[in-house]
Amino acid sequence: MGMTIAEKILAAHAGKARVVPGELITAKVDLVLGNDITAPVAIKEFERLGVETVFDRDRIALVPDHFVPNKDIKAAEQARLMREFARKHQITHYFEVGQMGIEHCLLPEQGLVAPGELIIGADSHTCTYGALGAFATGVGSTDMAAAMATGELWFKVPASMKFVFHGEPKPWVGGKDLILHIIGDIGVDGATYMAMEFAGEGIAALSMDGRFTMCNMAIEAGGKAGIIAPDAKTIAYVKERVDREYEIYESDKDAAYALVKEYDLATIEPLVAFPHKPENTRPISQVGHVPIDQAVIGSCTNGRMEDLRIAAKILEGRKVDPRVRLIVIPGTQAIYLEAMEEGLIKTFIEAGGVVSTPTCGPCLGGYMGILAAGERCVSTTNRNFVGRMGHPQSEVYLANPAVAAASAIAGRLASPEEILG
Amino acid sequence: MRGKAWKFRDDVNTDEIIPARYLNTSDPKELARHCMEDIDPQFMEKMSPGDIIVAGKNFGCGSSREHAPVAIKAAGVSCVIAESFARIFYRNAVNIGLPIMEAKEGASKIREGDIIRVEPEEGKIINETTGEEYQVAPFPPFMQAIIAQGGLINYVRARVGESR
C-alpha cells in the first residue's frame, strides 16, 4: 500500500520509512509560528518549562497581526510581551509593524515555507501552507511552547480525504468557491482530524493565491491540514523566495483515502455562506434580497494580490452604495505596495472604500470594522460564527472578492455579472 | 467530578466559548467572566463551580485559541462531555488539564439540570438523576501519560529533565 503526501511528510519528519493513519508519532518541525494573541500564552508556558533558550531562533516566526497596530492598552501589553521575548531570544523572524503582514499571507511570501516541510502554528489557519505541498497545521499555545523548546511535537497521523475538481471554472469562480463547495457538501465537521488533499485539473488551473485560499479554509471543515501536491506553479513561486533545499512529495497511486469526492466545475457558481456556519452555502443566483451594511475584502483567506485585482476590476469606475462601508485590507506590506503601484488602491478609494494597513482586525471582531446589532457584512474572510465580527446579533456572509465588491456596489448580496452587465 | 449538566448544541465554536473581543488578555480569571457569553450570556450567573458542560458533536470548532479551554477551566466547570470534539480544542484541553470526555450516548441522553458524576478511571459517566450509566471513549495511552502529568508542560519538563 502506498502513502499519501501527508503521510510521507510526517514519516520523513519522524525518521520513519512509513506511517499509517492513527499512528502517534513524535516529529521534528521546520517552523513554529505564533501571533500576538497566541504567543503571549505560549511564552508564559515556555517560561514554566525551565529551559533557557529556544530550540532554534531561525525556526520560529512571531507575527503581531491580530490586534496590531495596537488596538488598545491591553493589546499593546500583549504585543510588548511578544516583542521582548523576540529580542531576548534574538528571534530572526519577528516582524515589527512596518514589516508585518497577516501571518498566513506573510510567511509564504517571505520564503519561510517550502514544499515538504512540517510547520505548526498557534493559529488555526496555519493549514494555509499546504498550498505549497507542506504539511502545516494549527495547534494551541501550549503545543507552541513545547515546540519552541524542543523543536518537536507529537502528532496523530491523519487519514486523508481526496477532493478532485474536473473541468473549467465558471466566470468569477475562485479558490474560495471551491473550498466553500466542499464545506457545504461535507459540513463543518466533515473532515475532522483528516488531511484534505485537493487535486484534479481544476486545482492545477488555480493560481498560487487561489490555492492558498483553498487550503486556508480546510479547518472550516474540521481538517487537520489542506494539501496540494507541488507542480510547476508551486516551484516557480518557491524559486523566487526560498534558497534552501526542500523535498517534493506526492501521493502514491495506490495510497489509501478515507473518502474520495469528485466535483464537476461546470456545476459550481460563486457561493455565499450564510450565517452562522461556513457550511450554509448558497449559489449567488439563489441568495435572494439581502441588504448589507459593510463589505470586507482582505484576511488570510482573501487578502492577496489576485483578490485585490479581482475586486478592483469590479470597483473600477463605480461607486460603493452610500449605505455600505467598504473596507479593503491588503495582506502584507509588499501586497499593499504592489496594489498601490498598479493603481488598485486609487480604485478602491475613488469607489468610496477605505484601505487599511495589514491586520486580522475585523475578521475576528477585533477592531477596524466591528458590526453593531442587526448589521450585515459580506466578507471575504473565513468564519461567519455568531458574533464573529462584532455584536452577537450581527450577521456575516462569506464570499469571494468578486461577490464582495459587487455587493458593496449593489448595497445587497449581488453577483459580479449583475454589476458588469 | 460531580455537578449539574448544562446542555449545548452541536458545533459550539471557540468564538462562542470566548469571543475574540476579550482576547486582548490571557488572564484566566478575566477570560472566565465571559465564558460561553455568545451562546448563553447568562451562563456564568447560572452555573456553580463543579458543574458540567454537555454538548453535541464538534465541540470547540474554529480557532486554535487556548483561551477557550482556559476560560472553561477557570470558570470552574469540572468537565466537558460531548458527542465529539474539534481537533485543536481536544488537544488544547488535554494540554492544559481540562477534563473532557467523548461520550456519544451520554451526550445525547443527558438532559439539562441532570446531576452527573464522572469516573474517569473507570471510563464511566453516571447520571444520578435518571440512574443511567454511559461509557466514555478512552484516551490513547500516550495522552493518558500527558493527563497523568497534569498537562503537556509538566510532561515536557520531565522529558527535558531526563535528557540532561
Would you mind describing this structure in some detail?
The complex is a heterodimer of chains A (421) and B (164). Helix content of chain A is 32%, strand content 18%. With 421 residues, chain A is of the alpha/beta class. Chain A folds into 2 domains: 5-263, Aconitase, domain 3 (2-Layer Sandwich), CATH 3.30.499; 272-420, Aconitase, domain 3 (2-Layer Sandwich). In chain A, strand 12 and strand 13 (281-283) form a beta hairpin. In chain A, helix 11 (305-315) crosses helix 13 and helix 11 (305-315) packs parallel to helix 14 (401-410). The radius of gyration of chain A is 20 Å and the shape is globular. Chain B is 35% helix and 18% strand. Chain B has a 7-stranded mixed sheet with strand order 4-3-2-1-5-6-7. Chain B has 8 helices and 7 strands, in the order E-H-H-H-E-H-E-H-E-H-E-E-E-H-H. In chain B, helix 5 (87-96) links the parallel strand 3 and strand 4. Chain B is globular and about 50 Å long. By secondary structure, chain B is an alpha/beta fold.
